[in-house]
């Protein structure tokens, strides 16, 4: 029966390709939406993740960067650096504001960095200078291309024009970007002399970040201290609450649509073979054999569709940066496994429902039609 079922499945190649295509199209939709959701979420925490700090020191009561405000006296730097295990503590200033580049206007994290900054500045440069001076700015290379801006041109930040001296990489996404200004310049714009938003602490090689964060918390009053991992997790949670949930809702809607398409495709494919299954039963096939064949055929179709969908999704991830660099796609292994399990389950259920009806048909009825 199994051999006959596989022969029957691959014999009708046109129907097989249609079924595989329907499953693949639905799963590609699900994977792309899931990839966008994960990619956007990760982009929102790019700065705290890659700024170079092992431990973050911020205002008491603050536990994230996205949509947050932290103000500390920059004089705390000496106290932080005096804690055993601290290699150095780099102050930065931070504010969220739109940036106007050419004809583009984009939401951005504005980060003020000092000339001697050991952390907090751009981690990868396309061209130009990494640390801006007075009246200068470092902007994402993608934003520069989209706004028609190059080195030497100007952008508007917080109502003031700055000359672009550097183009950073991996600092731009569909929801935000990262712009770097001179610390003293941003200090004046914010009218916050002697202030710092965060201290980015690098640990000595032998110092564990968790233990170091605890020591700083105990030694420096009026601050909140978090390891990089804890800070990134907190920032990711806050960013999802503040807008990325909308993308997640779209992802769930797309997943439901995809599941319905997979189910309908497998249901239709099984119903088309209903007469063949009925004849097999009339010729002596047991119900358990019949259900096994139907389930196996559904599994083969959904796995072929899933493989096609994954291939297309990864091809899209390779091509999209060149076509739409603001869109980030990421497919965690957990997401792929979840989509696979759900697709197989829905396909099996959709295929077995009509098969169950066929199993209840009395032998010989099919010959009367």
Describe, in plain words, how this protein is organized in 3D:
It is a single chain. The chain is α+β, with helices and mostly antiparallel strands and 369 residues long. It has two domains: 2-44 and 244-368, no CATH class; 61-221, no CATH class. The chain is built from eleven helices and twelve strands. The protein has helices at 2-11, 13-44, 46-50, 76-81, 141-147, 183-189, 209-219, 228-272, 274-282, 287-323, 333-359; strands at 55-59, 72-73, 86-101, 104-113, 125-128, 136-140, 154-157, 160-168, 177-182, 195-196, 198-203, 223-227. It is elongated.
Spatial order of strands in the largest sheet: 3-4-9-6-8-7
- Mean pLDDT comes to 83
Helix content: 40-55%
Total helical elements: 11
Q: Using DSSP, what is the number of strands?
A: 12
- The first-to-last residue Cα distance is 24 Å
**How much strand content do the residues show?**
15-25%
How many separate structural domains?
A: 2
Class by alpha and beta content: alpha+beta
Element order, helices and strands?
HHHEEHEEEEHEEEHEEHEHHHH
Q: Indicate the overall shape.
A: elongated
Note poorly predicted spans: none
Could you tell me the radius of gyration in angstroms? 29 Å
**Biggest beta-sheet profile:** 6 strands, mixed, barrel
């Amino acid at each position: 029966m199994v051999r006959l079922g596989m022969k029957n499945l691959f014999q009708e190649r046109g129907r097989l390709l249609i079924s595989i295509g329907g499953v693949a199209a639905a799963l590609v939709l699900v994977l792309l939406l899931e990839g966008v959701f994960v990619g956007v979420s990760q982009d929102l925490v790019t700065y705290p993740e890659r700024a170079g700090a092992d431990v973050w020191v911020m205002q008491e009561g603050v536990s994230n960067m996205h949509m947050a405000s932290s103000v500390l006296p920059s004089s705390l730097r000496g106290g932080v650096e005096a804690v055993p295990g601290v290699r150095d503590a780099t102050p930065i200033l931070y504010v969220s504001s739109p940036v106007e580049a050419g004809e583009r206007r984009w939401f951005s994290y504005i980060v003020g960095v000092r000339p001697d900054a050991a952390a907090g500045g751009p981690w990868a440069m396309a061209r130009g200078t990494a640390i801006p001076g007075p009246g200068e700015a470092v902007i994402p290379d993608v934003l520069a291309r989209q706004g028609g801006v190059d080195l030497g041109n100007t952008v508007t930040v917080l109502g003031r024009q700055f000359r672009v001296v550097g183009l950073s990489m991996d600092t731009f996404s569909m929801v935000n970007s990262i712009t770097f200004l001179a610390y003293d310049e941003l200090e004046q714009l914010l009218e916050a002399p002697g202030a710092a938003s965060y201290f980015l602490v690098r640990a000595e090689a032998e110092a564990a970040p968790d233990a170091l964060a605890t020591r700083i918390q105990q030694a420096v009053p009026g601050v909140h201290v978090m390891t990089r991992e804890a800070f990134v997790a907190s920032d990711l949670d806050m960013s999802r609450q503040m807008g990325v949930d909308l993308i997640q809702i779209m992802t769930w809607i797309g997943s439901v649509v995809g599941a319905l398409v997979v189910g309908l495709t497998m249901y239709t494919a099984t119903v088309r073979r209903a007469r063949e299954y009925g004849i097999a039963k009339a010729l002596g096939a047991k119900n358990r054999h019949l259900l096994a064949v139907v389930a196996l055929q559904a599994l083969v179709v959904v796995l072929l569709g899933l493989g096609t969908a994954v291939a297309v999704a990864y091809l899209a991830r390779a091509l999209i940066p060149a076509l739409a660099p603001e869109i980030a796609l990421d497919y965690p292994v957990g997401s792929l496994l979840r989509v696979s399990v759900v697709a197989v389950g829905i396909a099996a259920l959709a295929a077995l429902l009509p098969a169950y009806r066929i199993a209840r048909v009395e032998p010989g009825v099919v010959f009367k039609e």
